[in-house]
Amino acid sequence: MSKKQRESLSLKHRFGVEISEAYNTLNDKALEFFAEFDITPQQYNVIAILHSAGALSTSDILEWMLEKNAGVSRLVDRLVKKDMVSKEPNKTDRRLIKVNLTDRGKKLYEEIGKQIHRLEDHVINLTEEELQQLVSLLIKFNSD
Question: What CA–CA distances, in Å, run from 38 to 41, 86, 97?
Answer without folding.
Answer: 10, 18, 25
